[in-house]
Amino acid sequence: MRLRHRTPSVRLIRHEVVKATNLLARELRLERGEEILYLQRLHSADSAPVAVEEMYVALRRTPGLLEGPPSARIEKHLDERCGVSLNRSLEQIEAVTATLMQERMLNLSSGAALLQIVRHQFSGEDVVVFSGTFYRPEAFPIRLDLRRQ
Question: How many CB atoms lie within 10 A of CB 120?
Fold first, then answer.
């Protein structure tokens, strides 16, 4: 964002402790029904919304995370409050159609396409964070420099 001379910001929209569904338990490598932290964040560039993020954090792997006020800067809090450093990320990128909620939050027309990044973030071998971020495609062009060796 800064390379494109835009000022990024992130705002915490929602946070709550929820029980892991079958899907979330599998993705976070936890037991079904285990407590996890759900966060919804809105990413902006120059105050214009560009992405919605839905994030789930394994509370058993992040002791102390819920102490103090919630923050949109979860990665910083994982390090400072919990001593948990995220050292690996497994990501999958694909095009999807925006949901009604995403259309409203990102000021999109019905049926708009989004760039989705599904991410598993690890500390060591443990999955700590599972998230999906949905980007307005024009806000995040992808540039690859591929070379054959």
Answer: 17
